[in-house]
Amino acid sequence: MIRRINLRNPEEIEKIRAAGQIISEVFALAKSSIRPGLSTYELDKLCEKHIRSRGASCPCINYGQPPYPAATCISLNETVVHGVPSKSRILAEGDIVTVDVVVGLNGYMADAARTFPVGTVSPEAEAIIDAAEASFFRGLLAAIPGNRVGDISFAVQSYSESHGYSVIREMTGHGIGVDMHEAPDVPNYGRPHRGPRLEAGMVICIEPMIAAGEQYIMIDEDEWSCVMEDGELSAHYENTVAITEHGPEILTMTSDEVEAFFAKWQSK
Ligand code: MF3
Ligand code: CO
Q1: Which of 165, 171, 246 minimizes the C-alpha distance to 206?
Q2: Which tens digit of pLDDT belongs to each residue from 227-256?
Q3: Which of 24, 139, 197, 249 could form a disulfide with 156 if both were Cys (CB 3.0 to 4.6 A apart)?
Q4: Phi and psi at residue 211, in whole multiples of 5°?
Q5: Is the overall model pTM greater than 0.85, yes or no?
Q6: Residue 128 gets which letter from DSSP?
Q7: Contact 203, 8 (CB under 8 A)
Q8: SS3 assignment, position 197
Q9: Would you state the pLDDT for residue 156?
Q10: Contacts of 239 (CB under 8 A, 6+ apart)
């Protein structure tokens, strides 16, 4: 089936940004709430409460098959994505925890993820968190009109692999807007100059999912949690990005965060 790539006008992009700004608040809340002893269930509930307090919705609830049972995905250590929040998963010092959030507002959606340290973590854990963010930045730089999706994919893959990480193949980034997953797929591996051409008005999620060991994953008994087969550490970093004539715009950060993000990575 060929899925059309939706182009959004500036008003529509502002609506996606409005949803995205709530996600940036959720990350600030998550960052200040994460501590050893907190369950992933409690963390999910804190995020959900905040989203609802903004009059927004949680499109993950009941999404897919089997219906997803929570507002956010919370993935620990070797769980790379789609971790199902649980009262029995308790954050421990040294863990790394990915919070992946979709927010719906006024008919539009945004989607983003961050991996956070729990207390003090190993140098290896710090490094993989940084590498996921850095590979996103490389992908972002390729997200300009005239390039193709493969240019983003190649940028993410080459950064990750040249720093010793593998990239997950089964899960990809995606278009977003009215639905959570729209065309095109945005893989974290690929070849330059291949795939759909990027145009101003496209809104996509760029989301490196990387692992310290091999790339292979398995799906847990809960039928959602996506776990590294070899049990090695993994990390995920995602933003919703609008392609514009002036370059890529990150819709899931505040303008201050965008400025700090570019200052951080452009100098490296
Ligand atoms: N952010 C995730 C993604 O884009 C959420 C989808 S899984 C869900 O894949 F069930 F939580 F919705
Ligand atoms: Co996503």
Answers
A1: 171
A2: 999 999 999 999 999 999 999 999 999 999
A3: 139
A4: -135, 150
A5: yes
A6: H
A7: yes
A8: strand
A9: 98
A10: 20, 112, 136, 140, 205, 206, 207, 250, 251, 252, 253
CA 101 to chain centre: 8
**What tokens appear for 171 in the block?**
């899960």
Distance CA 50, CA 76 (A): 22
| pLDDT value, residue 2 | 75
222 CB less than 6 Å from ligand 1? no
The pLDDT value recorded for residue 268 is: 82
Q: How far apart are CA 197 and CA 210, in angstroms?
A: 25
- For residue 132, report the distance from its CA to the centre of ligand 2, in Å: 14
Ligand 1 atom 6, closest CA: 60
What are the CA-CA distances from residue 70 to residues 38, 48, 74, 96, 261 (Å)?
Answer: 16, 9, 10, 20, 29
- Residue 44 Cβ inside 6 Å of ligand 1? The answer reads no
Low-confidence ranges of the chain (pLDDT < 70): 1
pLDDT confidence of residue 31: 98
- For residue 102 and ligand 1, the question of a CB distance below 6 A is answered with yes
CB 252 within 8 A of CB 13: no
pLDDT value of residue 53: 99
- Left, alpha or beta for 159 (phi > 0: left; psi -120 to 50: alpha)? alpha
* Nearest CA, atom 11, ligand 1: 60
pLDDT at site 267 = 87
Q: Which runs of consecutive H residues, i.e. helices, occur in the chain?
A: 10-33, 40-53, 123-141, 149-162, 255-266
Say yes or no: CB of residue 182 within 6 Å of ligand 1.
no
Nearest to 112 by CA among 253, 254, 230, 265: 253
82 lines ligand 1 (CB under 6 A): yes
